[in-house]
Amino acid sequence: MSAPTTDTTRTAQPAGSSRAGMREHRLPKWAPAAVVGAALVVAVLLTLPFGAPVAGVAVLTAILAVGGIWLASRIVEGSRKATDRLVTALVTVAFLIAMVPLVSVVWTVVANGAARLDVQFFTHSMFRVVGEGGGALHALWGTVIVTGLATLISVPIGLLTAIYLVEYGRGRLARWITFLVDVMTGIPSIVAGLFIVAVFALLFRPGLQLGLMGGLALSVLMIPVVVRSCEEMLKLVPNELREASYALGVPKWRTIIKVVLRTAVGGIATGITLAVARVTGETAPLLLTVGLTAGLNFNPLEGKMATLPVYAYYQYTAPGVPPEFAIERAWTAVLLLIALVMGLNLLARVISRVFAPKAR
Amino acid sequence: MTTTATAARGEARREARARAGDRIFKGTSTAAGILILLILAAVAIFLLIQAIPALRAPAEEVMGGEGLLGYIAPLLFGTILSSVIALVIATPLAVGIALFISHYAPRRMAQGLGYAVDLLAAVPSIVYGLWGFTWLAPRLTPLYRWLSDNLGFIPLFAGPASPTGRTMFTAGVVLAVMILPIVTALSREVFLQTPRLHEEAALALGATRWETIRYAVIPYGRSGVVSAAMLGLGRALGETMAVAIVLSATGAVTFNLIGSTNPSTIPANIALTFPEATGLDVSVLIASGLVLFVITFGVNMLARWVVNRRAEFSGAN
User: Fold this and answer.
1) Per the database record, which ranges form the ABC transmembrane type-1 domain (chain A) (predicted)?
2) Domain range holding B301?
3) What CA–CA distance (Å, rounded) separates A167 from A230?
4) pLDDT tens track for A257-314
5) How far, in Å, CA of A51 to CA of A44, rounded?
6) N or C: which end of chain A has fewer CB within 10 A?
7) Distance (Å, rounded) from C-alpha B241 to C-alpha B167?
8) B271 touching A, CB under 8 A?
9) Residue B273: HSE in the Cβ half-sphere, 13 Å Cα cutoff
10) Does residue B225 lie within any of the structural domains?
């Protein structure tokens, strides 16, 4: 374990007895916190002439704190400990830096999107709406329909492939499928959109845009994700369960359905929910394949359809005159989208907790 | 006598049914696996078919009037430049975060912190686009002004600084944020796989935590980090909407990262141009998509190959 650090070695010693004898010089436990506090004060004082901008204070505090901890440790504890503390500080700063975009993304979206989060947004489409008012009812339905189609297509194919890989697949074919599924998870989403456009242009006519095409494009992106997560879950099912089932004379296919899938159902549901969450936010393929309409369209086989991400994109980039109403709608649509995706992620965690095997 | 006979017959029938069921089940699941290979092949084939008109067209009819290569090359330059910036920013950060989560954070917090980083992956790319446009870009403009004033002798920061902040560098930062979760998650995974005995041996020799990481964890995880970075590169190359919104593209080929003239990227260009494109233009865009597909496919394949090779030799599984 990585844990045995300065703290554990100290507690391992008999309290207070050998410390003086070993002549170990250590910074007290509160030293890092004190250094950070001092760095903050200095940074505020230094930037005060410039109005103490938050970003400037944060950057300066980080630099001063990292340098200060290193220096203090260097003087008291020696160079090896100092390097250790320096890396600890740097790694912590790296994590804090990563939290900046997360917090600011959520903050920006909520602050801008809350204005239009009203009833009208959920009850109206953009049909005959110019300027103020209007909503994203049609886009919400479009997202549900297109994502639903993608799920209907991807789950059977993905799950069956996972079953093939875990239960039947041996040899070269299985190895190639595993490898290419991994590679397929990295297909750019816009290429999936172009692929469906190319297919439909060849089979029907160029310039076609349908809800179904969007569903197909998303399923190209979703299938590999479903395969990967289902495969992991099926692998977790202990072999003893399968063997017990075979010993009772149950044929393999019934064993898979009644024993393997039933044991892994929680994990599979989690994986599928995460896969749905991943494609819900996809914009680029839908921009090419589904397009945008102002009104409700429930038929994926006929005409363009509005979806939340594409709706937000066009409201933002082509707001019309006056622009502020459309831009407000874009932010609210984006807020809805982010809530939907994070909600699905949360749901996945809940599912995995509910279905987690309790016998261990 | 008769009862055993009927029982045996029933048995045989049941067995035949079981065999048929097995055959059907195995057949469908194998077919599903093969279907995936076919889809992958179809992506390449259909894009190629639709790109043929663009390949055959005379140079002056292709958008921009300089032939297909002249159209795609600047885009490819922009795609690679933005992804490299993203990679340079994201990789060290991701390694740091991965180490923080796997080796530094209190054990009880580690999982929650991992979720927090994963949430970054859950944010849709269009949200990053709007965020980069309204939040990040204006906040980076003072930095750009400073860079062009003080470090203008470096070609990367030649300036003049863009007043909107919608520069190549901003696009790179947004991409870095977007690939951070995947690089972090994969690096964290390999760091956690380090054999515990290696780490304990290092600690027993009196190594500090950093020395343990330096001499036990990093040598073990190096190839994993390399492939994680490459998978991140694959993502960055194909990222569309964020770049389309953030980057103010003019099509110029320049290494100046902070100016207001920037090369576009292949995916962003497709997203921006496709909705109004017809005829040969569609074909040209599909050809550029094919180039993107081939490149990302190659990068991903190489990355996976590195991972798999490592998995075979590591003995971690």
Assistant:
1) 140-348
2) 57-314
3) 12
4) 889 998 888 889 988 998 999 899 889 999 999 988 888 888 888 888 989 999 999 9
5) 9
6) C
7) 15
8) yes
9) 25
10) yes
On whether residue B268 sits in a domain, the answer given is yes
CATH architecture designation of domain A123-355: Orthogonal Bundle (1.10)
Q: Is residue B71 part of a domain?
A: yes
Mean pLDDT value of segment B266-288: 88
Checking if the pLDDT of B17 tops 60, the result is: yes
Alpha helices in A114-187 (DSSP H): 119-123, 137-163, 171-184
- Domain edges within chain A: 23-108, 123-355
pLDDT digits (tens, 9 = 90+) for B160-185: 878 888 889 999 999 999 999 989 98
CB neighbourhood size of A138 (10 A) = 25
Q: What is the pTM of this model?
A: 0.86
The domain that contains B160 carries what CATH number?
1.10.3720.10
> Is B150 part of the contact surface with chain A (CB cutoff 8 Å)?
no
Beta strands in chain A (DSSP E): none
Nearest CA in chain B to A277: B122
Question: Using CB atoms and an 8 Å cut-off, which of residues 66-105 of chain A contact chain B?
Answer: 80-81, 83-84, 86-88, 90-95, 97-99, 101-102, 104-105
A135 and A125 Cβ atoms separated by less than 8 Å = yes
The count of structural domains within chain B is 1
List b or e across A252-288, with b for residues whose CB sees 16 or more CB atoms inside 10 angstroms.
Answer: bbebbeebbbebbebbbbbbbbbbbbbbbbbbbbbbb
Whether B23 is in a domain gets the answer no
| β strands within B116-267, DSSP E | none
